[in-house]
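pasting for the record
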Amino acid sequence: MDLIAPYSMVVKTKDVYDLKEVPPQIRMIQPTADQKKHFVELKHLMATSSEGETLEIKTVLERMTRFQQINGGNFPYPVGKDKKGKIIWGIHPLKFNPKLIELENMLDELGDQQVIIWARFVPEIEAIQEMLMEHGKQVVTFYGATSDKMRDYAKRAFQSKEVQFFVGNQSVGGMGIKLSAADIMIYFSNTFSYEDKKQSLARSQEVGKTTPCLTIELVLNTLIDKSIMAAQDKKGGMAQFVDENIKKLTKELY
């Protein structure tokens, strides 16, 4: 740093351009009775069932992950073990998915604007993609299993407005790629990582772009979703959240 300091300078975008700050929209969504049942049973019994499949958990940390999956409209359950004894997980969608229904209801509101949708879990991404395609929308996906060739196409097609929707997860698509064509960024679900959030928000930015990108948060009115939002507001993470809230997690959910 000492060597390059005489030849370097740092200028923040906000000091160069008159950027308008647009506060994020929070869309609070009510969970279904079925979701509430699963949350309460996991809290008190450490187990719950759906369509003949049973989910059992052993730790509070695991429960937090299962809460998030159920929040997103999916029920995880074990289907067996691999040769190394690792559990193989199956997933089936819940009968009603409030977040997906809210997203579907937003389509007219979104119009022909360029939209990024971030979701933590692959089944969420696949469900969003299927819903959008059913409505005749052009969509690309971007997550761990996406090939390098398809990743290049997804970025190029979204930036050129060949497709309207870019659906991915923050830990993969949220780092190091340019998606400055975006008009709106929707968070279907979040991770506990503040870095994931910060990096994914930056994907819509570009030098010279002064039009703000609207951010919309889909938040299920449950402890886990609200806790993630609170942790990100504090710029914290999973470890900090658990350290501060481990006792709170054992209290009533609602």
